[in-house]
């Protein structure tokens, strides 16, 4: 699974993208796995209400299934315009 | 519909003229342009805009397609820049064409409201005092409820 991070999530985790071996069925399970890795992940994901997630470049929520997904991105609420 | 996500500056006059040209059935053209605003108490050195290549274009296409359907627009244009921008530089523009004024204005507002909160861009303000990611405003999210 290709996992991408943007804005302060990227800064906290310290990299823009990585390949993750995972059997997670949902985004929430993937988050649990990532948080267990290292403190920087735990901190970045400590408040999910401050985060948004996209699966295969479509905005979704943390309950979303990862079945067939190739790319998951985590980022703060967007500030375009 | 045309969507451009680019680092380079754009020419507002040329883009507006090209968008408006040759539309005999569209009585109303609205354009909106966003400009990097300086900060009152801590002068802005640069505004950095990060985005999610691939998703950004898809999200903007979806938002523009929704605006076209919803307001019966004849056409829509979105240009949004990324990378480092100085105060006074243009960040983005939208343009809408419709037979009548209200749909053109509403279509442009809808585009702006949605692209602020649903297109994957993030702003970071760099001042002499440091750098901070711009927080999303509740008001921007609330603005979507009116549509």
What topology, given as strand order, has the largest sheet of chain A? 2-1-5-3-4
Q: Can you write the helix and strand succession of chain A as a string?
A: EHEHHEEE
CATH class of chain A: Alpha Beta
The biggest beta sheet of chain B reads: 4 strands, mixed
Query: Unreliable runs of chain B, pLDDT <50, ≥5 residues?
Result: none
Mean pLDDT of chain B: 96
Query: Which class do the helix and strand fractions of chain A yield?
Result: alpha+beta
Write down the overall mean pLDDT of chain A. 97
Helix content of chain B: 25-40%
Instruction: Provide the CATH superfamily of chain B.
Output: Molybdopterin biosynthesis MoaE subunit
End-to-end separation of chain B in angstroms reads 21 Å
The CATH homologous superfamily name of chain A equals Beta-grasp domain
Under CATH at level 1, the class of chain B stands as: Alpha Beta
Query: What is the helix tally of chain B?
Result: 4
The CATH architecture assignment of chain A turns out to be Roll
Question: CATH topology of chain B, anyone?
Answer: Aldehyde Oxidoreductase, domain 3
- Radius of gyration of chain B over all CA atoms, rounded: 16 Å
Number of structurally distinct domains of chain B: 1
Could you give the count of β-strands of chain A?
A: 5
Percent of residues in helices of chain A:
25-40%
